[in-house]
Design a protein that fits this description.
The chain has about 240 residues and is α/β, with parallel strands linked by helices. It folds into two domains: about 110 residues, 3-Layer(aba) Sandwich (Rossmann fold); about 120 residues, Rossmann fold (3-Layer(aba) Sandwich). About 50% of the residues lie in helices and about 15% in strands. It is built from 13 helices and eight strands. The longest helix is centred in the C-terminal third of the chain and has 17 residues. It is globular, with a radius of gyration of 17 Å.
């Protein structure tokens, strides 16, 4: 039985903790033994705002919690990117090497599931139509766009509709949406128009932060739109 740690991103624990339970349910259905890591932050909000010391302090606590585990899975491409690519740069010498070693053990949830040897045994089925939002970190930092789309394509009965301007950002970008609200709002409107053109009433993505941004925007426009993480889609597709 594979042993994995499931790191629950801090924003997921606050905004929509049910998505963490969806992810855990899928991992257990695959036959994994799951240890949950909660109450930690990867340090990304501080890092993106220029507070490297604070990012290092927050990230250090996550690395300590992750250190005993060979594989750490998290339903957030942005957190994986932070821990792999940026958090180690806040350390020096042997601590940098140790941080990089632990960071390399982090896997984005969708990519991990897509490569799992027990995936075919799940019998995933979920009739319906969904649009797919390709989050920036999943696409640009981790390069898993095809992997995620392929995984969703394994769900029997589910039609995935790709966006015309799939490579464009939704406008969230963490602190970007606070520092540049007018630009963020314009990007959000364009993305929602793209989603609306698909005719789908459900939007799925690897990234809850993007989905929360898009859902709030859709609500403000009176647009009927549900947002699901990939973890929720897979969980609902289980027998």
């Amino acid at each position: 039985m594979p042993r994995v740690a499931l790191f629950v991103p801090c924003f997921m624990a606050v905004l929509r903790p049910v998505d963490a339970r969806h992810a855990e349910r899928v991992l257990r259905a695959l036959g994994d033994e799951v240890t949950v890591i909660e109450g930690r932050c990867c340090g990304q909000p501080a890092y993106n705002s220029g507070y490297r010391d604070e990012a290092r302090a927050a990230g250090r606590e996550l690395l300590r919690a992750a250190q005993p585990h060979a594989v750490i899975v998290t339903p957030s491409a942005s957190c994986v990117s932070m821990v792999r690519h940026y958090l180690p740069t806040t350390f020096e010498g042997e601590r940098h090497i140790a941080a990089q070693s632990i960071g390399n053990r982090f896997r984005e949830f969708s990519a991990y599931v897509a490569e799992h040897p027990a995936l075919d045994s799940l019998g995933l089925r979920l009739p319906g139509v969904m649009a797919y939002h390709d989050a920036c970190h999943a696409r640009r930092e981790l390069g898993i766009t095809g992997t995620v789309a392929g995984l969703l394509g394994r769900i029997e009965g589910l039609e995935i509709r790709r966006l015309q301007y799939e490579e464009e950002c939704c406008g969230f970008g963490g602190s970007f949406s606070v520092k540049q609200p007018e630009v963020s709002a314009a990007m959000l409107s364009a993305k929602l128009a793209d989603v609306g053109s698909t005719g789908a009433r459900v939007l799925v993505s690897t990234e809850l932060s993007c989905l929360s941004h898009l859902e709030a925007g859709a609500r403000g426009l009176g647009m009927a739109l549900e947002t699901w993480t990939v973890a929720e889609a897979l969980s609902r597709a289980l027998p």
